Amino acid sequence: MVDISQSTEIPPATTEISLTNGNDSPAPPNGEYGDSKPSSENGDKSASMSPGSNPLPNTPIGGGGQSYHGSTSVGSRLAGEDIVGRRINKKKITTHTQSLNDPHQSPVFKGGQTIGNSNSMGFGNSLDTTNNTNKMSNLTLQEVQQVAAVKAENLKTWSVKTYRCTKQLLSEKLGRGTKTVDLELEAKIEILRDTKRKYENLLVLSRALANHFSSVVQTQKVLGEAFSQLSGKSQELQDEFRYNAETQHVLAKNGEALLAAINFFSSGINTLCSKTMEDTLLTVKRYEAARVEFDAYRSELEVLKLAPRTEANILKQANAQANYNNNKAVYDKLRADVGVKIQFLDENRMKVMQKQLQLFHNAVTAYFAGNQQELESTLKQFNVKHTSEDKPSWLESQT
């Protein structure tokens, strides 16, 4: 056995593979290999290794009974021979060198995996992290810094703007600041808000009327059914019960037509309040916000004009003048938009309410007058659709 502790320099140990069939094993050249023990019947297979090297497991390859044994080839390298290498090249098998730095790593094949397909995956349970790496590398550090810089700049702009507008509002409430007021436009805006409140109240009342009248119509239907039942059971009052049943049936039918007209009236007011007026009020809110911001820049410009004429103040005054001009243009544009929208809203409101009020008046008058033909013509005139079933009840069909 070779005493390798006496040598001054030893080349790094490598793991090699030898192919054997059964008990056939290669003879060590010139006795430079360690004494290897043959495999026992219990499957205890081992190979003599040089100090510091890791043994390789005896894993069968394929189904031909061949196995590879891990061994060191210090003597073989010193002698310049590579017997196992020649056999591996002859078999065209790719080997994997085990690192001496990781004694816990072992070349374990997955179940059913051969050496041929282990070339692509490597030894052990390795995971493909290419997709994750590509996703991580899509956003570079420079891009992250750019996004962060943009967000920080937006936050800074919003903070300065909010502070300036809040300061202007507080100064107006405390009576220290001045406010730009368009008296004519402010009066129109106040009238619009008051009109919206009154129309919303009208909408609540019309819906309440529709709910109550719907209960009345349902009660009339039930009452008509009761009269029909009694007309069939009471021979002495059969005609009277039948007359009342027919009357309640006609009233219920006309009530459904009136209920459709009331619902149409409520729907028109709801559209006028929740869409048309609300759109104009949104423009008004934008106009008011632009007015506050414009006044804030105007106040800042007035303060800078009274400040000493230093270089820094001149630069600040130039910036404030530019901001003042920009916000004044926005304010003037929104003020014109509000005036136009209020004018169009008034014209549209007049047309819609004339139609709705005429429908409501004609339908209510025709219903309480008992004029069924006038009620039906009113619904057709305003294109009001209602589902009124004029089918006799089961009791009426039986009598």
UniProtKB/TrEMBL annotation:
Keyword Hydrolase attributed: no
UniProt feature, compositional bias: Polar residues: 1-24, 37-56
UniProt-listed GO biological process terms: intracellular protein transport; regulation of Arp2/3 complex-mediated actin nucleation
Primary localisation category: Golgi
Name of the protein described by the UniProt record: Arfaptin-2-like
Subcellular location: Golgi apparatus membrane; Golgi apparatus, trans-Golgi network
Pfam families assigned to the protein according to its UniProt record, in alphabetical order: Arfaptin
Taxonomic lineage of the native organism: Eukaryota, Metazoa, Chordata, Tunicata, Ascidiacea
Start and end residues of each AH domain: 180-380
